[in-house]
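Final report, Chapter 2: Outcomes

The project's central promise was a pipeline that accepts a single protein chain and returns its three-dimensional structure in a standardized token representation, suitable for archiving and comparison. That pipeline is now operational. To close this chapter, we reproduce one record exactly as it appears in the project archive, with the input sequence first and the structure output second.
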Amino acid sequence: MGYRAEMSAYLATLDETIYNIGTLGAKLNDFSESIDTAAEVVDTIDDIGDYAEKAHEAIDDQLTVLKLSKQAAPLKLPSQVYEKVLKAVLPVVENIEEAVGFLNGDTEDAQGNKKDGEFLSDLNDALEQASGAIGGVADDLEETALKIRETQVGVAEMLTALNHANYSEFSALKASVSAQFEGRNAAVGDLADLFNTALGKVNDILAIFSDAKFELVNEDFGEFAEVSDLIPAGRDRRPDQGAAAGRRFPRAPDRGGGCPVG
């Protein structure tokens, strides 16, 4: 092929490369966002363990208060109902607390002293670093695409100039340019396949994150903190304070007639 065909082929390859880089960069940004969501889930689970511990302590406090309030006739019935609700909630809270502790690598020595693990915190940090690194690669690809665009403009201008160089003394130059771009076309011939391979791998990983439905996990756990706050800590008031003030013992808030924990 002559210089015109070789340079046109090279320009077309650059065009395809810029498109492929843009596509891959967009997918990497999606990947980075998915990792951010996963990091949020890990952070949420870590927080859930704290909320479960807080709820556990509050339930224990309330059950202690109820032992006294049941002795007062006006408070006996509401206290028994509230106690039943708390005892139904307690195993759920304990299971959540235990599960999160297991995930976090919490330990307990022979004397029963507990030590909080750091796995969830370390995992969150690692995910955030990975997200930042992948986002950095996406930014680098964007810069690369801009440089390729500049190269493309330069080649197009060179092609236009050669097309206007109709004198015989430019024949050797055109032959040299043709040979040079023939070599370039051979060198970049596999770029499309390489991009497709990389894009396929990124899509496979994105599919895994999609199947994990991290957004739904965040939604499911998001209201647990509110649920734990529904249980007042018994240590915040004296056992007889409610009766002395002429108020009924606090009951579980009405959530549509159901138990405050779904």
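Archive annotation: Confidence is low (pLDDT under 50) at residues 234-262.
This record, like all others produced under the grant, will remain available to the consortium after the project formally closes.
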